Amino acid sequence: MVMEDREEAMREADEKAMPTRRAVLQAALGTAAVATLLSSLYVGAGLIPRVTKTPENEPPQEGDILVYATGAKMNQPILTSDLAEGGPFQLAFPMDPKTKVIRNKEPKNTLLVLKQPPGSYDAKVAAHAAQGVVCYSAICTHLGCTVSLWDAAQKLMRCPCHGALYDPRQDRVVSGPAPQALAQLPIRLEGAQIVVAGAFLGPVGAQV
Amino acid sequence: MFQWFDERLEISRLYNKFLRKAFPVHHSFFLGEIALFAFVVLVLTGIFLTLNYEPSIREVNLPDGSTVPAAYASVLYIDSLPFGAVIRSVHHWSAHIMVAAVFLHLLRVLISGAYKKPRELNWLIGLGLLGLTIVTAFTGYALPYDNYAVTATRIGYGIGASIPFVGGAIAEIMFGGEFPGSTHSVPRLYSIHVLWLPLTLIALIGLHLLIMVKQKHTQPKYAEKVAPGKILGVPLYPQQSVMMGILFLVYLAVTVFIAGAFIAHPIEAFGPPTPQTPAVKPDWYFLWIYGILQVIPSEWQFRFFGAVIGPEFIGGVIVPGILGAVAALLPFVDVSKDKVRYLELPSEHPVRTSVTLGVLMFFIMSTLAGYKIDLNLSNAVLWTLILVVPVLTGVVSYILLKALYGRSWERSSAEPQAAD
């Protein structure tokens, strides 16, 4: 009799404690879930890599000299006398003249430089050109390929990836999928060398 | 010996319960199997490649004095190993074959109506597998780090980054920063290509097969007449296994021959990355997207809650997204009340068949647009081809099907009981 009473009492106590127990467990589970979510977000943020700035991946600085990005004279200064008037253009990187660091670790620093008759530019482009030499970002604003083809017949620049055509004289997109014109980089001449005279005049790289 | 194992592992029970399971035989049923074989070969050749590949773009000097990225140099090293170039070529070709086989398998399921109840889930998993297969192929593309691969991957990065709001983050996470340029890119793509995506593929392929075994494979139409209510097929072991084994060996022989005769992706010919981009074309299964990107003018750009919806997003994400969404919804729109056990004949479902042919023609015409510059075609001509030819194909197919099979449709609608 005594045993049964005790069992009965225990069962009653158990049932009374049930809601509390459930609430405690639910609270524990909830806390654990939130803690897991927050910590995984914190750890997961590490998936977006840190970018370390070095002289090699800095954007073109005023006073940088343009050097050949490709070809036999790679990494040597481009001389205006080397550029044929009327094209084709040369691909270039900016180089710090003091440290001789070439800023080629950032693909967006790829530039194209060309010489046209000084009278052929419209006023906006001519303002930042020097004696017919003009410099643009070579990164197509469509999907970030390098604009590397020269259309000799039309004297236009063509991106090999999806065929965007750019006009160097008016700084505009002639045809193709590119959403914006190439960003012009102001330059000046120091002797025969081409020197960066300021920051890009527009956004650089794929405009997405 | 057999008894010793049987007493411990109950092999004969497994044999009776599972390995005696009958599978129907039809030539079109081997497409999924070929995709599986391609995957197995990809895993095996891939393991070989990982043993010598170096996922890094640090600069190393080659014996000839040139400085190239370590990844590029390690692939040159792989190519110099005995059969190394062939194994890499088999890996590359198998990726093509897997994409093609998965797509053809999907087409077979589509035109035979096998996506209907109870197989809606497996249809969705299959669509996921097609998407994952293509993404896996894409993440492997940049790994040799030659000029061609880098340019092609760069375009993919641009398309990923064009997704409004989340695209930038997705591209950053998948490519480990800006591509090209970031030193984290190749290690990140490598991990995704050799670990995460293959594990996901293995899990989904396993699920796909388990569900197929559980739900039983659809049977060819003739089985309905020959043995109604029964499964017409051969047991998994030994008959089906022998067929599979032979098919696998044939697959291996053919791919090794192709891979040896036509070395895929010759990185020495492309050279290490330079500031110049070559005129790249993506792999054939991306050519239709590439073609659409070529014919979308830059004016197709508008703002949407502060985000830019540009031509890349429309051509590279929205168009494939719509096709994917339509495919995913199909089994819930074209429903069957009863569980489907037998394949439907394409000729008896003229609308579905004609629309499928029209969509295929859309792929072909968009692919043609990928040759816009080579063929010197104008946007107007290409838009006409892309929009008109598929519709025309669909209409003509319907008319032809009606002319050829119209009488049998009347018969089956006249006596619906017989069709069930």
Could you describe the 3D structure shown?
The complex is a heterodimer of chains A (208) and B (420). With 208 residues, chain A is of the alpha+beta class. Chain A has helices spanning 2-44, 123-126; strands at 65-68, 90-95, 111-115, 133-137, 149-151, 156-158, 165-167, 172-175, 187-190, 193-196. In chain A, the strands form 3 sheets. A 4-stranded antiparallel β-sheet of chain A has the order 1-2-3-4, with no helix packed on it. Chain A starts with a helix and ends in a 12-residue tail after the last strand. Chain B has 420 residues and is mainly alpha-helical. In chain B, the strands form 3 sheets. Chain B has a two-stranded antiparallel ribbon with strand order 1-4. A two-stranded antiparallel ribbon of chain B has the order 2-3. In chain B, strand 5 (302-304) and strand 6 form a beta hairpin. Residues 416-420 of chain B have low confidence and may be disordered. At the A-B interface, loops of A face helix 7, helix 8, helix 13 and helix 14 of B.
